[in-house]
């Protein structure tokens, strides 16, 4: 790739290269390339961490609020309920503890790529001091448990419990919820918060059941087989040949952590990731403890503003995430001062080319073998895939026992009894790890594998299949007293997911408080209200179709089919999370009665 061409010629050259690489990876199977670990494949999603189900008698009770999900969304909802003086609630989750994705993700090296100071909820109240800027998954899991203890959430929890069915009763104005443990819970209000990273996704490779060795998904790591812990030390992998399918956020952490434990490792790559240095460091405890009250919320808001191209005066984080957006701000201001045209799309693309040039240069600098370095270079725009940060992943390929198997966009061809076939070659393996992530943006009832039956017997599945309609992405006509926390489609998206659930959990509890204060036994949300919000989404829509259609296939663009199913990226509230927070607060204060139907009064 020429570096001496004129800016216009250079842009054209890069654009051609990006499209060429994208076209290699377009598959007619689209989402069918993957299999959800449900039904016939549910064994891949079994809980290896709390394998013994704690015995208890079935529960039969009536509660004011049922909270489905014990991840960050459910935790914050429970906290907000208690702060509102509502203590008759129950939290249900399939997992054996609080933490959501951080309960399930315990693979070697697991770590969050958003700084802990804004990602871990309610640090000031709970009293956690993160050990590092980007902490391990184990530390996040411990914070989740500490959060639950601090706010007394364990007293309200039924864990290792899966909802099977929720049915609304027009006579009693209550939901009847049944579970796999024989429970019957009558709930006045329901909130569901099961997160975007819950349904384990497997590659739809022929022969997936044929392998005679050990095989598991990274989200259900088998430490009984490998030994060790999330910190590494998987000594039982000594002498074994391990295949890792994937080079995304999970593999970037697994590969360097177990590289020294295995005899040989083969990392199978369909598409390279944009990997830059994380530059992690220990927390300056004096700095942390010297922060003023409210600093965490202010810092999280600043991050949300920066990543929404709002260009705040000060970047409080100045980290690997905000770098790209600060480059955009600097180029915008340079052009403005020079009296040049201020086309934001043109500015963003120019900045993007420079940013990705830097990423590719960094990869070339770190990986010693030139062929491997070239294969690891990403050729697409920066935000086409989730950017990744690591201080040791690329370095792993300098180890003699770690091999990058570049399939040039084709992926692994099939699984055999003895290993994997890629590029027409069979790679004999003892262990296969599917580091293939999750189905992102699935509706909550699909995540939880339960049925929701609203007014008139209409199911939530039927509602969604007609085309998603909501108020704020969280409330739907025909489903009284029912809200979603963590919803991104027609709601908000942010790389810091904690911002999403902070906003939506507070709002959900605000709606419940309003009903209790006004003596409303039950409310439904009107179709007119849905119409207004759907129109608001259309009016504020930022059309990213051209950008994502030209992206390399991945979950952000529906495997290259963005225009037919724009997922949560294409259907969020355009002005961003902070404006959304203001809009839903104003709605609760001024337009609540307009968009609701009172079904009964206490």
Task: Based on the model shown, name its key terms.
2 domains, alpha/beta, 602 residues, FAD/NAD(P)-binding domain
Summarize the structure.
By secondary structure, this protein is an alpha/beta fold. The chain is built from 21 helices and 23 strands. The chain folds into 2 domains: 7-32 and 200-278 and 349-435, FAD/NAD(P)-binding domain, CATH 3.50.50.60; 60-198 and 442-540 and 575-597, FAD/NAD(P)-binding domain (3-Layer(bba) Sandwich), CATH 3.50.50.
Descriptive report:
The protein has 602 residues and is an alpha/beta fold. The chain is built from 21 helices and 23 strands. The longest helix is centred in the middle third of the chain and has 23 residues, at 344-366. Helix 2 (72-83) runs parallel beside helix 17, helix 11 crosses helix 12 (344-366) and helix 17 runs parallel beside helix 21. The strands form six sheets. Strands 2, 3, 4, 5, 6, 7, 20 and 21 form an eight-stranded mixed beta sheet that branches. A hairpin with a 3-residue loop joins strand 15 and strand 16.
Write the layout of secondary structure elements.
Blueprint: H1 7-25, E1 34-36, E2 60-68, H2 72-83, E3 89-92, H3 101-104, H4 116-119, H5 123-126, H6 137-150, E4 157-158, E5 163-169, E6 174-179, E7 184-192, E8 199-203, E9 214-217, H7 223-226, E10 241-245, H8 251-258, E11 264-269, E12 275-276, H9 285-289, H10 295-307, H11 322-338, H12 344-366, H13 370-375, E13 388-389, H14 393-396, E14 402-406, E15 414-415, E16 419-422, E17 425-428, E18 431-434, E19 438-439, H15 444-448, E20 451-453, H16 460-465, E21 482-484, H17 497-518, E22 520-525, H18 527-539, H19 545-549, H20 567-570, H21 577-591, E23 596-601
Parallel strand pairs: 2-3, 2-7, 3-4, 5-20, 7-21, 9-18, 10-11, 10-18, 11-14, 12-13
Antiparallel strand pairs: 1-8, 5-6, 6-7, 8-19, 15-16, 16-17, 22-23
């Amino acid at each position: 790739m020429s570096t001496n061409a004129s800016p216009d010629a250079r842009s054209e050259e890069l654009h051609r290269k990006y499209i060429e690489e994208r076209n290699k990876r377009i598959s007619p199977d689209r989402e069918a390339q993957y299999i959800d670990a449900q039904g016939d494949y549910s064994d891949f999603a079994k809980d290896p961490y709390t394998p013994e189900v704690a015995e208890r008698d079935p529960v039969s009770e009536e509660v004011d609020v049922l909270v489905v999900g014990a991840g960050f969304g459910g935790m914050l909802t429970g906290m907000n309920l208690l702060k509102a003086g509502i203590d008759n609630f129950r939290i249900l989750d399939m997992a054996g503890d609080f933490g959501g994705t951080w309960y399930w993700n315990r693979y070697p090296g697991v770590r969050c790529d958003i700084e802990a100071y804004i990602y871990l909820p309610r640090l000031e109240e709970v009293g956690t001091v993160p050990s590092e800027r980007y902490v391990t998954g184990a530390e996040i899991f411990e914070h989740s448990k500490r959060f639950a203890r601090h706010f007394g959430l364990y007293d309200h929890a039924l864990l290792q419990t899966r909802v099977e069915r929720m049915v609304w009763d027009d006579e009693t104005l209550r939901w009847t919820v049944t579970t796999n443990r024989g429970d019957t819970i009558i709930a006045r209000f329901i909130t569901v918060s099961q997160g975007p990273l819950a349904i384990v996704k497997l590659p739809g490779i022929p022969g997936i059941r044929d392998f005679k060795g050990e095989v598991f998904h990274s989200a259900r790591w088998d430490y009984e087989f490998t030994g060790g812990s999330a910190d590494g030390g998987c000594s039982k992998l000594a002498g074994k040949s391990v295949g890792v399918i994937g080079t995304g956020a999970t593999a970037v952490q697994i590969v360097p952590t177990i590289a020294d434990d295995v005899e040989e490792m083969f990392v199978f790559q369909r598409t390279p990731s944009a990997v830059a240095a994380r530059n992690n460091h220990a927390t300056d405890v004096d700095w942390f403890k010297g922060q003023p009250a409210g600093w965490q919320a202010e810092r999280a808001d600043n991050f949300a503003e920066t990543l929404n191209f709002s260009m705040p005066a000060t970047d409080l984080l100045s980290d690997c995430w905000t770098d790209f957006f600060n480059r955009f701000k600097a180029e915008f201001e340079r052009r403005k001062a020079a009296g040049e045209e201020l086309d934001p799309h043109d500015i963003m693309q120019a900045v993007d080319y420079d940013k990705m040039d830097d990423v590719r240069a960094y990869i070339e600098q770190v990986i010693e073998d030139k062929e491997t370095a070239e294969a690891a270079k990403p050729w697409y725009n920066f935000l086409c895939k989730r950017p990744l940060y690591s201080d040791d992943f690329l370095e792993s390929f300098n180890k003699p026992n770690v091999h990058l198997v570049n399939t040039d966009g084709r992926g692994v061809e099939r699984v055999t009894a003895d290993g994997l076939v890629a590029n027409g070659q069979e790679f004999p393996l003892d262990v296969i790890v599917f580091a293939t992530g999750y189905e992102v943006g699935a509706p909550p009832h699909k995540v939880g594998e339960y049925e929701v039956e609203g007014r008139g017997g209409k199911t939530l599945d039927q509602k969604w299949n007609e085309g998603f309609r909501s108020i704020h992405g969280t409330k739907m006509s025909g489903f009284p007293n029912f809200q979603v926390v963590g919803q991104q489609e027609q709601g908000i998206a942010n790389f810091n997911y904690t911002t999403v659930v902070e906003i939506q959990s507070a709002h959900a509890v605000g709606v419940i408080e309003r009903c209790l204060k006004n003596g409303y036994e039950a409310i439904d949300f009107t179709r007119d209200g849905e119409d207004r919000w759907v129109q608001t989404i259309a009016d504020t829509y930022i059309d990213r179709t051209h950008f994502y259609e030209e992206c390399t296939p991945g979950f952000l663009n529906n495997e290259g089919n963005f225009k037919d199913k724009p997922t949560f990226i294409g259907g969020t509230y355009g002005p961003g999370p902070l404006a959304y927070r203001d809009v839903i607060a104003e709605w609760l204060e001024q337009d609540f009665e307009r968009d609701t139907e009172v079904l009964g009064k206490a």
